[in-house]
């Protein structure tokens, strides 16, 4: 209590901060809610940080590039990409161009067209109080509900359970009657609370072939737990404590091409294991030592929540701290190590972010190797956590400003490094339906940990993914007014908006902190949702489309739109919803499908697209994907769930 008292005395005078010559106050939240909650539990939690505020909050503006406009098409013209004028990030005219990009797949003359707009995106407050701060977030297939959960260790949230039974607090005679897990309808915002018994703090997860969430690990009694959530109106968590051979706290779960799961690392356990089937248990004999996680361990870790991706060749890419390897999951041997990525650490608590870039397939795909690239952005210096968390007064080092890209299917691959418009750590990377990447959330200085970061990075940044070899570029988009710091999260929605939630830099639920525990949920509409581009949005006719497809099979998707469709401007992608936590998006995957045929006017304003499913599970692990039809670079009105099967 004493530390909370002094924290309050220090923070209150600093609620007004100086930003670029203007006084700025982060919006007051949760008015009328008197309850405040601070963690009063085991001292062992101090490993994640603590301490006091020790410096001014300075949130640098990224310049006039963030100036927004409501959109507005004054003209549409076709222009070759090589002749386009820069990024248009400072465009004052509300103009849209149709830009031609030479593609390596597709039909016709092999070109993809995309609408080019000066619209910088827009924000909306979707839910004022989600009940929990979304430390973990995933969109569940078919039911279109976002699963959000925090940790039972706090023993409190912003929502009470609807009735008994309450959770028995381990090792005490107390009960916890608060909600720690919810399902939220992404269209209506309706919330259904779920009960949890085993602590999910800093856990992992992935969707199985049937769309169920299989989550692993957590803290304390949840560290060796496997939990499953099925898809139904009354389904709740099924929890299996003791199912894992090692405790998995800050571990990463990956889905293999045959649908099995592996889970890597976790605090104090430089090992990995295959996740057992429902109801089964691993023993220590099922745990494999992984010396790579010993070698990449700094004095303050910097290798927790490693970035792990299934490559298209069936090997597993693992990045920890500043090193990366390919692991053969069948022989359990490292078959290749890539060059070291310079300029600091990237994993928790340095906490950069990463994604697998779009996998581009051709019609009638027959290539032996399908290129697969990773993108890693931001992070911090190796000693950023030491300075921000362990030193007094705290010192908040600037985060990294670079992004690095690597083809993980090439044994001679090298990192290609470019700079972002601003520094970022604790951020998230959303692979958009078009293949571009939205970098959102996070801070500009400090580290992960309790009260260990400053200068919220309020502006999302668009990383342009292009297939014509002309390179990539960044565009700074319109800012939110809600800081999303440590423990923020996201979900790509069926309407191509982005759900943004979470943020809690405090060991508990605090309303009086510099960055209060955040339970508000926002939606962000990216550039392609410029209202003046709505004419390009197609409608998928689900009842006339195939939504369960075997690998390599040809299948049809029917679309309806306004006027005649130019087949050259079509792009079809499928997206695997990630399990998002701590800046890591487990199993996020976007695949552009090859268009085999395009049948025009099968009915008025209605067309059939014949596609080929991915050839195997290494390209697209079995399960549910959101299928988007993009026209002129603008996603369809609502994606369709499609299931890929062996």
What does this structure look like?
With 646 residues, the protein is mainly beta. Among the domains are: 136-289, no CATH class; 537-644, Immunoglobulin-like, CATH 2.60.40.10. 3% of the residues lie in helices and 35% in strands. The strands form 14 sheets. Strands 26, 40, 42, 45, 48, 49 and 50 form a 7-stranded mixed beta sheet that branches. It has a 4-stranded antiparallel beta sheet with strand order 6-38-37-36, with no helix packed on it. Strand 36 (488-492) and strand 37 form a beta hairpin. The longest helix has 10 residues, at 2-11. The chain is globular. The termini are far apart. The model is unreliable at 1-96 and 101-110 (pLDDT under 50).
Please provide a brief summary of the model.
With 646 residues, the protein is mainly beta. It is built from three helices and 50 strands.
Keywords:
about 650 residues, Immunoglobulin-like, seven-stranded mixed β-sheet, four-stranded antiparallel β-sheet, 3 helices, about 35% strand, Ig_E-set, Ig-like_fold, Galactose oxidase-like Early set domain-containing protein, Glyoxal_oxidase_N, signal
